[in-house]
TrEMBL record:
Hydrolase recorded as keyword: yes
Record SUPFAM superfamilies: Thioesterase/thiol ester dehydrase-isomerase (SSF54637)
GO molecular function, one term: fatty acyl-CoA hydrolase activity
Name this polypeptide is given: Palmitoyl-CoA hydrolase
Keywords on record: Hydrolase
Residues in Acyl-CoA thioesterase-like C-terminal domain copies: 149-284
Pfam families: 4HBT_3 (PF13622), 4HBT_3C (PF20789)
């Protein structure tokens, strides 16, 4: 397992300080703010730790309220909204110094049979082995930021089209596709831990959810003057997911207006099973 992914798993190990309260740490970031995917994943994990056994997370709706400070511990206060015959609902507030930085509601369901269908990806894309990894791209750039990203990259991301780390897409479009998996793997009992797999996916996806918005408007992450921040996040898990294997993100941006852009993603396994659908709106302020 890579050191970077081991660090992600470390911050996804919360300290329980009460029946419905947990405390977690944060990973270093260049901007010294808590990474949104981290606090989102930790909040879902805290909620899941209060749910009766045999109930899996199937949806989350959350709001990023304030920037988080990476040097301040995060308290996760869980409210037990309901435990019904089949479903459980939880609200989690992520707090620093008593002030919420994220608030979400998560729903969990007993494993049950029922009607089934799924929309295929509709794409024919190269396998990840034929595409360049973000780690190789970062390692080839002689810049302090690139060196930090190469050292701390916990996920191997391989874009089907041009990546947006430094340069915009020369052919702007609202669509993109990419493969992603951790730079390590869940091992032993962790690999079959449904909640852990679900929260690792929540952690990972926040890195790329707004890229279709950037791609549509000829923008790139390191463009001078750009400002991007997650505002809210919705996620639905449809099937069990093994995050240790490659997952295909099929992404789109249906709209951007007023300094906000919406990104969506359907997440598929290598054999074409739809495991999750994700939507995120973010602030996107482009340089003038």
């Amino acid at each position: 397992m890579s050191d970077a992914f081991a660090e992600v798993l470390r911050v996804l190990t919360l300290e329980r300080t009460g029946d419905d309260e947990f405390v977690g740490a944060s990973l270093p970031q260049v901007n010294e703010r808590v990474y949104g995917g981290q606090v989102l994943a930790q909040a879902v994990l805290a909620a899941g730790r209060t749910v009766p056994g045999g109930r899996d997370v199937h949806s989350v709706h959350g709001y990023f309220l304030r920037p988080g400070d990476i040097d301040v511990p995060i308290t996760f206060a869980v409210e037990r909204l309901r435990d019904g015959g089949s479903f459980s609902a939880r609200r989690t507030h992520a707090l620093q110094d008593g002030v919420p930085i994220l608030s979400l509601i998560a729903s969990f369901q007993e494993r049950q049979s029922g009607v089934e269908h799924e929309e295929p990806s509709g794409l024919t894309v190269p396998p990840p082995e034929d595409l360049a990894s973000n780690g190789d791209l970062f390692s080839a750039i002689d810049h302090p930021m690139a060196r930090f990203l190469a050292r701390t990259a916990a996920f191997d991301i391989r874009h089907v089209g041009p990546p947006l780390y430094v340069q915009p897409d020369p052919e702007p479009t609202t669509h993109q596709a990419l493969w992603m998996r951790p730079t390590g793997a869940l091992e032993g009992e962790a690999r079959s831990d449904r909640l852990l797999n679900a929260v690792v996916l929540a952690y990972a996806c926040d890195q790329v959810m707004l890229e279709p918005v950037l791609r549509a408007h000829h923008l790139a992450w390191r463009m001078p003057g750009i400002s991007v921040a997650s505002l809210d996040h919705a996620m639905w898990w449809h099937r069990d997911v093994d995050v240790s294997d490659w997952l295909l993100y099929v992404q789109d941006s249906p709209s951007a207006r007023g300094g906000r852009g919406l990104g969506t993603a359907r997440v598929y396994t290598r054999d074409g099973a739809l495991v999750a659908t994700i939507a995120q709106e973010g602030m996107v302020r482009a340089p003038r």
